[in-house]
Specification:
mainly beta; five-stranded antiparallel β-sheet; 5 strands; 35% strand; Flagella cluster protein; DUF7385
């Protein structure tokens, strides 16, 4: 299994065959984990990944289950399990 590497930022193109783009807006992406990539925070497979370059984000609903956060210099990653 592949662990998401966020040590030098996060580039979705490095994982384009493993993550499916569900939705993209200005500065945000919502992706589905298709190949059991591992979370950079807890090293477990995750279901969904939200990536934001925005400094503030509001979620309309909370995910069911654990969430992990990973921060790069330019992005916030929210991973749901």
């Amino acid at each position: 299994m592949t662990r998401l590497d966020v040590s030098d930022g996060f580039d979705v193109h490095d994982y384009r065959t493993k993550l499916k783009l569900v939705k993209q807006d200005r500065g945000t992406m919502y992706l589905e984990n298709r190949e059991d990539c591992l979370c950079p925070a807890c090293d477990r497979p995750f279901e969904r990944l939200f990536v934001s370059e925005q400094s503030e984000v509001t979620f309309n609903s909370a995910p069911n289950g654990p969430i992990c956060l990973a921060r790069t210099d330019d992005q916030l990653l929210v991973l749901t399990h």
